[in-house]
Amino acid sequence: MAGPKSSVLRRIMPQLVILGAALLLNVLVFPDFFHVDFRNGRLFGNVIDVLNRGAPVALLCIGMTLVIATRGIDLSVGAVMAIAGATAASVVTDGYGWGTALLAALAAGALCGLWNGVLVALLKIQPIVATLVLMVAGRGIAQLITEGKILTFSNEGLIHLGAGTILGVPTPILIWMALGAAVIWVVRRTALGMLIEAIGINERSSRLAGINSRVLLVCVYLVSGLCAALAGVIVAADIKGADANNAGLWLELDAILAVVIGGNSLLGGRFSILASLIGALIIQSVNSVILLSGMPPEFNLVIKALLILAILVIQSPRITYLMYMLRASGPQPQPDRPPMPKARKEEAR
Amino acid sequence: MIRSTHLPLLVTLGTFVLAYALCAYDYPSMLSTRVVANLLTDNAFLGIAAVGMTFVILSGGIDLSIGSVIAFTGVFLAVILRDTSIHPLAAFMLVLILTTAFGAAMGALIHYLEMPPFIVTLAGMFLARGAAYVLSTESVPITHEFYDVLQGLYWKDPSGGRFRLIGGIMVLTFLVGILVAHRTRFGQNVYALGGGGQTAKLMGLPLASTTIRIYAISGGLAGLSGIVFSLYTSAGYSLATVGVELDAIAAVVIGGTLLTGGYGFVAGTFFGILIMGLIQTYIVFDGTLSSWWTKIVIGGLLFAFIVLQKGLTWATQARRRTATGSAAAS
Lengths: 349, 330
What we know:
Chain A contains 16 helices and six strands. Chain A is mainly alpha-helical.
């Protein structure tokens, strides 16, 4: 059993190092960062905040990782969050229970995912274009559901999903961790993960090999829609209202960023949901550093942009190739390392 | 063959004429030159940015940064005119150089790092928006007599429509864009690049300079659009024009340009802009429809045009297959 475990560790090592650095920065600007309190039956502390505030992006990046692994992209998740939040809020204000509201929101998310999936898998429209339709129209639909207002609600059960705790742990943390673990378990304990990777590497040959790529593609977008719906409900529950204009605004970009920081190639193929989730935590830790250090929040976007640029340079195929050449021509060639970059490059093509 | 290549453009034109006729049937006053003049004025900044976006999409890329660049330009101009005594014309030149260089840098990253344009311009979007925030988070008013002079420039139609300077700049940008796309070597290179990067490379086209120039044009036009936007609103605000890149992409697609690149017309984008403006004008005229219908209708149009393009591509492929007689099962 030591083999697979150590390979997983090696895969997520760069992300763990970056996360460690981000957390270290947090401690430097705020020495009490790791201090966790138990007050009023609930855990308090900055670490808990990072885990809690990172929940929407973490949820989104679970579905987004799968979509990107098939060489796709889902731009509509932010709009789907708004739709799901609006659905849940309107169902609850109509007098139904929180369970019904959650189910309705998930159904709305599944419907959106199905729409994207059908456009991509059956109509063969480029993913970026297909999901753009819902990204543009989705907020309009959400506003249609809320009739242009910010729908507020006071249903205890629904609010509990976003702002409550279970055994002292904020519910959003439990939700994203449980869903992440479940999806990782499903894709890695079955052949599903491998089949998804096969589609991302070469859809045509995977179909010739007997993979039902159409159904799988639709399912992947469906999962992304469901994750977005869950994130939308959490965000709405957190502020006790559905804001069709601002809920999940630009979160699709954060989710894609988390996946990229997680070392997953935008060209599809091998993926690691665990690494993406760590990526989401990295983004949240960076936000936390900026907040705690008292730097003006205006710098948030600039720092994020520089972070993306740095990661782009590291991940760029050309730089990978250069590094490989440097290592190959170096004085001490390490026997087990050189083949790796080359193999990855071939996969990406 | 001519008919099928021009079909999307004709469909866009037909949609516009039909939509305008329907609007005019409901509200005859929409035929007045005032409405036409306002259509040009209100969509001027979007139109200018969409010309740049058309080039980017023709080359098979995408530029997500333009909304942020427009906002940055506005804030930059407002702050520089408030804090220094530079003449606005000099400030315009400065900001145009800055945004063009910004676009060129993104193009260089895309080409030399071989990264998808989507993610590079996403970083550009964050960077430009962040730079705008750093300059000022508040809305900064622009009060300069030269701005008043520029805003006061218009040609008044006898029946009351005021064709303002910024509408004229948009039309001029489109005309230049059409010329560059169809009458210059650079334009041909853009089409070739969009038709297939590998093929273009084998044909010996200057890929690096073409890619860099495309994104430089997009950045520069976003800067021009920012100048026009600051003339339109007389202020610079870092939260302005969020999501304009989506509107521009939608206008390009509704204008009949293929999002995979290599096929489309700059003129089509012009009508795409007008169709989107028309939807907004109709909603204002109607008074009872809510503003969110704009988004839904634009999304629907987007979907319709994408499906139309897909259908055309299929039809062409099917015809080719029957022509070569190799209708193998796939």
